[in-house]
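Late entry, evening session. Most of the bench is empty. Finally got around to the prediction I had been postponing all week. Sequence below, unchanged from the version circulated by S.P.
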Amino acid sequence: MGSKGLPTKHSNNKEKKLKRKEILEKKKAMDGLIKAASADKHPLHSFPSFHHYHRHGLSVCLESGCGDKLSSPTKQYIMNLLKVNMEGPYGSEWPSEEKVKRREMVVSEARYIFVHEAPNASSPTDCEEKRGSMVGFVHYRFTLEEEIPVLYVYELQLEPRVQAKGLGKFLMQLIELIARKNRMGAVVLTVQKANLLAMDFYLNKLRYVISAISPSRVHPLVGDEKSYEILCKAFDCEAEAILEQDNSVNLATTCSLLDCLVPPVLHFSPLNHSPPTSTFLSLNPPASVSR
């Protein structure tokens, strides 16, 4: 004689099947978003006002690219700039890290925004004809973090002569627009704790937060020994709940990191989860993404 109102084995199995189906359908949808976002080879077409940057005595034009379509001169430029900006901070680890970055650079999932000098360009329409030498780039990818579709910034590298002119903020604004257009839940990046200028730039100026997936929040005792923090900016409730959660616990950590920040001479450069660079921005993907 069965107990009235208690779930039966049959009903439990049915619920499990429905739950499994729901999970698989969600995963399929997320994979579809990543695939669709990655399929757009010309993201700048949707943002014509971001083709040209002309401020603070700097005039540059932007161009998009893919990792598996890079020309030999472009590959060489990327590695040269990485070496200039990153060899010092990496120290003895640079030779092995250089090999990793060389592999990351050309994968089919890699997406680029290239920055070219364009001193004679007066409008976005002039950029194609008057584009000059390259002075920097952004390397990003669309991926999943905790089953949330995100745009992950792998590198933001700028030459010293075009730093401190607002270009880094301009490029990050474009990155956020690309992420939103492709229905990503967040932009994610990694910053070295020692790179106080970068921490200040992202946390205070761009309003990023220390992510719930950052080592200092996942395992605080172990995380304190790590040299980096994972930052994010969420665009919807689900991404905020999973990737940000309650960031009030980070205020003391953030303040202590920034207390010793002297009035900065801002320099814009790499976004890496590796050692800090000699320039301003330093981000890199966590091991789960790229290593």
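Two things to note before I forget:
Residues 9-39 form the longest helix (31 residues).
Residues 251-257, 259-280, 282-291 have pLDDT under 50 and may be disordered.
Will write this up properly tomorrow.
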